[in-house]
Design goal:
This protein has three helices and twelve strands; from the N terminus they run αββααββββββββββ. It has about 160 residues and is α+β, with helices and mostly antiparallel strands. The chain folds into two domains: about 1-55; about 55-159, Macroglobulin (MG2) domain (Immunoglobulin-like, Sandwich), CATH 2.60.40.1930. Strands 3, 4, 5, 6, 9 and 10 form a six-stranded antiparallel β-sheet that branches. It has a four-stranded antiparallel β-sheet with strand order 8-7-11-12, with no helix packed on it. β3 (about 55-65) and β4 form a beta hairpin. The longest helix is centred in the first third of the chain and has 19 residues, at about 5-20.
């Protein structure tokens, strides 16, 4: 998908979001004699396809009873990337402690670094500086408040 299509898709998503949430114009209400609910437009959209087309990074992993979500709202590139982590247990956001993320290139030993994301409410933010294109694997390590250690793994391929 070219950049113009991506921009148009993004702007259309924003305009639908703004329309649905503006001036109390959501929920059930009348339009030309018909009952309407604009939130159904947002609910019925396939957001996973939209996110795939926009080439953002979104990965959900499982570690014991925890769901770990790693996101980037912009396409990943070599250089600095803003990424965030969220943790949930039993479908509810939860806090963790001693969080660290190790990034490394399996094809190039010695190309590794560890980050300590900063917690901002329910989200842990970090700036990931990928020094080059290629496959980067990561290990997310954290402790639950009962003291148990958890590790989950994933990878991203920068092209």
């Amino acid at each position: 998908m070219n950049k113009l299509s991506t921009i148009i898709l993004g702007l259309s998503f924003l305009s639908v979001s703004a329309f649905a949430g503006s001036n109390g114009h959501m929920g059930n209400h009348m339009h030309e004699g018909k009952m309407t609910n604009h939130m159904s437009v947002m609910k019925d959209m396939d957001h996973s396809e939209m996110m795939k087309d926009m080439k953002i990074y979104h990965h959900i992993m499982k570690s014991s009873s925890y769901m770990v979500t790693l996101d980037s709202i912009k396409p990943l590139k070599d250089g600095k990337n803003n990424m965030s982590l969220m943790f949930s247990k039993n479908s509810k956001f939860t806090k963790v402690k001693d969080l660290s993320v190790k990034f490394f290139m399996p094809s190039m030993p010695g190309m590794d670094f560890v980050l300590k994301p900063k917690q901002m409410g329910k989200i842990h933010n970090m700036i990931v500086n990928f020094s080059m294109m290629g496959q980067w694997d990561y290990e997310i390590m954290f402790k639950s408040f009962d003291g148990k250690k958890h590790i989950t793994k994933g990878s991203v391929n920068l092209k």
